[in-house]
Specification:
Blueprint (H helix, E strand, L loop, with lengths): L14 H7 L2 H4 L3 H17 L5 H20 L11 H13 L1 H4 L7 H37 L4 E6 L2 E7 H26 L1 E2 L15 H8 L3 E2 L3 H6 L2 H27 L7 E2 L18 H24 L15 H21 L3 E2 L1 H7 L7 H10 L4 H18 L8 H5 L9 H4 L2 H7 L8 H16 L3
Parallel strand pairs: 3-4
Antiparallel strand pairs: 1-2, 5-6
Helix pairs in contact: 3-4, 3-7, 3-9, 4-5, 7-8, 7-13, 7-20, 8-11, 8-20, 11-12, 11-13, 12-13, 15-16
Length: 460
């Protein structure tokens, strides 16, 4: 299949050079976008009188025919071209003759590729946003289903304070809502049309970029033709968005792995999302979580790669930019798949409420509430903190818990303790007491759930 640029050259390129230049194995993913953009370009050329209406119709009909044949699988062998753009144009010429050769009037492969990639990226942002919304909904359902459960919160992976279990799931819902907001904003910045920028300097033909802009659903044409063909900020943004999403997923996976282990036993991951061991019959491994955690590094790798590609290339277009797509496609595939499987798996995670409640009272989780009790009686907090520390030391030495202490024993440490102190040191009481805005009580979590749902609705 002939190259679009071969007229200037005396001979063919070396076989290994062709292989090294070849982008068809990965950019063929953009065939829909390439044909769609070409239809819009041909329509504009006809409307502006740059080509005849007859040629316009022949080109558009020919392109639509190629689209239909590729969609149905009638065209299955697309080898032989150096990229998907060459393949489509050569196929068009083979079908309609010289009229097909007029398609590339007032267009360079530089603005063609940039436009196709933005069209594809726009769809990738949309698909990822939909997946993030589904994941957030899954987290909200878990939060609603665990409002009655009390769970220990951790700092430094050591028990800290009791909280409503729904607070844990809402925390991750907040992270993914921020991700959804970022993806939506990035999509808007990507929705600028390079078509009409030409190779780098625009064109002398009387084109109307507003026509193609409207046909392709872009917000506006690019304001600078050099920037139009060389800007790949949207690709780097997509990689960053994916990296942060995977970071949040990895943290969630780490928590699920730890808290579903026998040493904690707070959650149970369904058998449907676990695997066993080839040698140890008792094993139930959280492989889905581990694989997501592992894929996070892979996504970080592309972010580093695209930033490195972009850092030193001069204006305008350079072949370096061919390296912008493989990693992008890999980011989309693996990030979206990770988000989707997590949304699915979360629906099958069981909260062990009894184990959670026991854990919320162990290891002096309610100690802060003992100090707060004294503070509310007028004791300075730093003094109350010291007194409570002494109580904890006493419990450790005598094998007691805060819950097994009597009111009389508490009064040995401060006359400000009264008989009601024993009702303040249950895990549930401590969790319910934290009803400040954004706090860990059931009441606060219910408000948080309502807020998450309302914000999620704004992305519909």
């Amino acid at each position: 299949m002939g190259k679009l640029w071969q007229g200037r050259f005396d001979g063919g390129t070396a076989a290994n050079a062709d292989l090294f230049n070849d982008s068809l194995p990965f950019d063929q993913r953009m065939w829909r976008e390439d044909i769609t953009a070409s239809v819009a370009h041909a329509t504009m050329l006809g409307e502006c009188g740059i080509i005849t209406k007859e040629d316009q119709k022949a080109i558009v009909d020919g392109l639509n025919g190629i689209y239909a044949d590729m969609e149905s699988g009638k065209i299955s062998d697309i080898t032989g071209a150096e990229d998907i753009h060459s393949f489509v144009e050569n196929e068009l010429v083979s079908r309609i003759g010289d009229a097909g050769k007029r398609l590339h009037t007032a267009r360079s492969r530089n603005d063609q590729v940039a436009t196709d990639f933005r069209l594809y990226a726009r769809g990738a942002f949309d698909r990822l946003a939909k997946s993030l919304a589904n994941l957030t909904e899954s987290l909200v359902r878990q939060a609603e289903g665990s409002l009655d459960a009390v769970i220990p919160g951790y700092t430094h992976l050591r028990k800290a304070q009791p909280m409503c279990c729904g607070h844990f799931f809402c925390a991750y819902a907040e992270m993914f809502l921020r991700d959804l907001d970022r993806v939506t904003a990035s999509r808007k910045r990507a929705n600028v049309m390079p078509l009409g920028s030409g190779a780098l300097a625009g064109t002398s033909y009387p084109i109307d970029r507003d026509i193609t802009c409207a046909l392709l659903g872009f917000d506006k044409p690019s304001d600078n033709s050099i920037d139009g063909v060389s800007d790949r900020d949207f690709s780097a943004e997509f990689a960053f968005d994916c990296s942060l999403i995977m970071s949040h997923l990895s943290r969630l996976c780490e928590d699920l792995i730890i808290y579903s282990g026998g040493e904690f036993g707070l959650f149970e991951i369904s058998d449907a999302y676990s695997t066993g061991s080839s040698i140890m019959p008792q094993k139930k491994n959280p492989d889905i979580c581990e694989l997501i955690r592992g894929k996070t590094g892979r996504i970080y790798g592309y972010l580093t790669a695209i930033l490195t590609v972009l850092k030193g290339i001069p204006l305008a277009y350079d072949k370096d930019l061919q390296e912008d797509k493989e990693g992008f496609f890999d980011c989309e595939t693996n990030t979206t798949a990770s988000v989707d499987i997590m949304a699915e798996m979360l629906g099958a995670v069981t909260v062990n409420k009894e184990a959670c409640e026991r854990a919320a009272e162990e290891d002096f989780c309610c100690a802060t509430d003992v100090a707060d009790y004294l503070t509310k009686k007028g004791v300075p907090f730093r003094t109350a903190h010291s007194v409570t520390g002494a109580i904890v030391r006493h419990c450790i030495d005598s094998g007691k818990t805060l819950q097994s202490m009597t009111a009389e024993e508490y009064r040995n440490f401060s006359e400000n303790f009264e008989g009601d102190i024993t009702s303040f040191v249950s895990g549930r009481a401590c969790a319910d007491a934290r009803d400040s805005f954004g706090g860990a009580s059931r009441k606060s979590v219910e408000k948080n759930i309502g807020s998450i749902k309302a914000r999620l609705d704004t992305f519909r």
